[in-house]
């Protein structure tokens, strides 16, 4: 039996070990029903309890106000890139998109075939190394919503404030979901894939201001309609049973850790350790992003040479710290330290970075 | 530890026990990598092997010709109801839909908001108790495809032949997927949710004639584009890793059983046992469907009175045979005997039906 490694992958990524062990234990015979949860009808009482517990915990842990609904929808954040404009826009309104990196650009490119959507800011000039100030955003007339990406997984930047622009926000929070509080008043819709902070890949969790469902589009195919998913409590069609079940387990783990506040404190503490290691390395390690926009989830850093980066990654892997390679589009190194990454993993990486620097500078 | 029950549920439904046990064993530490498969990057070598094995086995087991591609797409068959017309239709062509029951009707209702689609036949007159003869189908001009539902899960009817109409077929095979051979020449596209014959809920498997991708629509959001899923080998965005993994395991199990031929023979044998029990019951049990359209997967039957049906279901449950209730929209009883239902389960039900009849007639 190999020892468990520290997995710094950007997603799918490390999950809480107790969650995995519990799921393993009950995998074949769920609650002594003589079958696996995977084999149970989604209309039966066992799954119904699992499903509603996950819904309730989602709202509770994320501290969503009572005028928000939570939806579970397959297709990840990418399908939400399509569903948001399909449901919220029509011929008389448009949407602004903040192009803060790979994911913000993807969201706009999926909106444009189905609705009127424009770039409200493009970070190309800085190489997508910072988030915009509110004053830099161009909001046009008849803007139904401003779409932001709360944390850019690849670029390693995040909003350190929620923009205040007079139009409702829609946010893709995939890569820092439920790691900090949200100014709910500013948002009409928040979505994200589960495969970073919330569980395995296989679905998106969507929080939507319930009253806007009165005006969402209905002349689209049913799977794409928020109003139907909400009316049917995400059981309009067969839900992704295992994804919902694992989400519930991860949320229970988060609750036991102290909920959103504890996740936020841990994220601040863990990211501070790594940024201090970088900042105190006399330039051996270098963060390419604007200090004011530094992500607390995806710590991107470079070494003096690409050959050293290669060696760093190889030696880290041998030391049981894996998936530290930066995204293929940007290179370098990236430590993703999501909610489930224990502080021991971050400290082990800190020590390794110090050791490696001593050997090579 | 409760004994394993016989689960006659219509989906999610019984899975092969060896598959569940194997998945349980490797759940926390996959291939001694020090992490779960759920935590692995979908770009890593371990998952890549799992993914491509599932793709290859899908094509192999279903005996798909080399000019077909296989795609894994989240959202179940229901999202395919939207994707098929979004990709295949345009202003100058339309599609015919066979309304053979709940699912055929659903497919048409999701096509109509996005394209020109019409009913080629409606089984309402017979209460959706039979499939049409080819001569009953009305195919209009400029018909790009005829959409059929190979097996209607709720009504308990199936096509016993593949229609021959001069236009390409598109089929929803969710509830009898990979349980019989297909006349591939007649089809441009076959899809189905995994949660009956192929694994847990959470994705659809789509077989598409590769050359038609040259002419599918590209001016739609990326998640909805078949051409992109095919070009990226279903890794355009993070795939539903666990669903693909379980699909692969179920397909390996099917292969070990003897593949498609063995699945077909088992389906014929298992369904014959139950239909004979019904037909030889002197009217105590009654099949409401046309004998020529009887499903081999979902055996729908009635008892003389609703109160007897209730008692039948209660006593069957106590005897370890569960989920025999018909769909809430039609009532009665339904035994779903998918690929993973062992013949022992069917024989146990046969004996129980005989015993129950003796006690109550």
The CATH C-level name of the largest domain in chain A is Alpha Beta
Largest interface: A-B, 72 and 72 residues
Uncertain segments of chain A are none
Q: Order of helices and strands of chain A, N to C?
A: EHHEHEHEEEEEEEHHHEHEEH
Oligomer class: homodimer
CATH architecture of the largest domain in chain A: 3-Layer(aba) Sandwich
* Strand arrangement, major sheet of chain A: 2-10-9-8-5-3-4
Global geometry of chain A? globular
CATH topology of the largest domain in chain A: Aspartate Aminotransferase, domain 2
CATH homologous superfamily of the largest domain in chain A - what is it?
Type I PLP-dependent aspartate aminotransferase-like (Major domain)
Structural category of chain A: alpha/beta
Please work out how many helical segments of chain A DSSP would assign. 9
Q: What is the number of strand segments of chain A?
A: 13
* Domain module count of chain A: 2
Percent strand of chain A: 15-25%
Termini distance of chain A? 36 Å
Cα radius of gyration of chain A in angstroms: 21 Å
**What percentage of residues of chain A falls in helices of 4 or more residues?**
25-40%
Average pLDDT of chain A works out at 97
Largest sheet properties of chain A: 7 strands, mixed
């Amino acid at each position: 039996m190999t020892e468990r490694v520290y997995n710094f992958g950007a997603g799918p990524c490390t999950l809480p070990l107790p969650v995995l062990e519990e799921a393993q234990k009950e995998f074949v015979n769920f609650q002594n029903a003589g079958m696996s949860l995977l084999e149970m009808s989604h209309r039966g009482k066992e799954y119904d309890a699992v499903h509603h517990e996950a819904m309730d915990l989602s709202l509770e842990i994320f501290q969503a106000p009572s005028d928000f609904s939570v939806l579970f929808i397959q297709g990840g954040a990418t399908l939400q890139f399509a569903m948001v404009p399909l449901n919220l826009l029509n011929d008389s309104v448009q949407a602004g998109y903040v192009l803060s990196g790979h994911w913000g650009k993807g969201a706009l490119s999926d909106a444009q075939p189905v609705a009127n959507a424009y770039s409200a800011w493009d970070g190309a000039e800085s190489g997508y190394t910072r988030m915009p100030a509110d004053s830099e955003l161009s909001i046009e007339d008849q803007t139904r919503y401003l779409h932001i990406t709360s944390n850019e997984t690849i670029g390693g930047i995040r909003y350190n404030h929620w923009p205040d622009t007079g139009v409702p926000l829609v946010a893709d929070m995939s890569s820092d979901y439920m790691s900090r509080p949200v100014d709910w008043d500013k948002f009409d819709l928040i979505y994200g894939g589960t495969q970073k902070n919330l569980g395995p890949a296989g679905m998106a969790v969507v929080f939507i201001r319930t009253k806007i469902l009165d005006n969402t589009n209905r002349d689209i195919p049913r799977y794409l309609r928020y109003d139907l998913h909400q009316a049917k409590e995400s059981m309009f069609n067969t839900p992704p049973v295992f994804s919902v079940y694992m989400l519930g387990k991860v949320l229970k783990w988060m609750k036991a850790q102290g909920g959103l506040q504890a996740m936020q404190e841990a994220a601040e503490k863990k990211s501070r350790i790594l940024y201090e290691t970088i900042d105190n390395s006399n330039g051996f390690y270098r963060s390419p992003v604007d200090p004011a926009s530094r992500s607390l989830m995806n710590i991107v850093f470079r070494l003096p040479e690409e050959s050293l980066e290669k060696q760093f990654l190889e030696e880290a892997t041998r030391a049981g710290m894996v998936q530290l390679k930066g995204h293929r589009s940007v290179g370098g190194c990236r430590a993703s330290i999501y909610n489930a990454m224990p502080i021991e993993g971050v400290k082990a990486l800190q020590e390794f970075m110090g050791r490696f620097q001593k050997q090579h500078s």
